[in-house]
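Milestone 3.1: sequence recovery, worked example.
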């Protein structure tokens, strides 16, 4: 039996989430080190690209199927040219939001904005919220 058939028979799948069972999502990469012990680790993910945009959403779930991680990424691009003959797409703005559910059920939220790609400046804002960000 081909591996794809075995995986389909072993786990439920959803057509809108081709990487639902991936385990290599870097969910803790931007998590502050001093908070790593206080978050609930996801065991399953839904990765949902936004159609016709450069955006996506990731939802992570714990072993009880409750949301424990959420990420949004959006990049705005524009056409640019260095010589008025060749054009290329370049990012001009990016925004990300990552949120981790804490063991006390609050959410640690990291909001990052890059307003000026040419200068490489990013603004980060870390906060704690009572509920999961929408």
């Amino acid at each position: 039996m081909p591996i794809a058939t075995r995986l389909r028979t072993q786990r439920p799948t959803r057509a809108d989430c081709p990487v639902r069972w991936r385990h290599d999502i870097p969910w803790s990469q931007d998590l502050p080190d001093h908070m790593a012990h206080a978050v609930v680790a996801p065991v399953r993910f839904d990765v949902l690209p936004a159609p016709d945009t450069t955006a996506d959403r990731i939802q992570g779930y714990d072993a009880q199927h409750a949301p424990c991680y959420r990420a949004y990424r959006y990049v705005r691009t524009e056409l640019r040219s260095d010589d008025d003959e060749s054009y290329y797409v370049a990012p001009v703005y990016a925004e990300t939001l990552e949120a981790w559910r804490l063991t006390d059920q609050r959410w640690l939220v990291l909001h990052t904005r890059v307003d000026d790609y040419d200068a490489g400046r990013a603004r980060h804002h870390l906060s704690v919220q009572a509920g999961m960000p929408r």
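The first helix runs from residue 3 to 10. The first strand starts at residue 44 and ends at 49.
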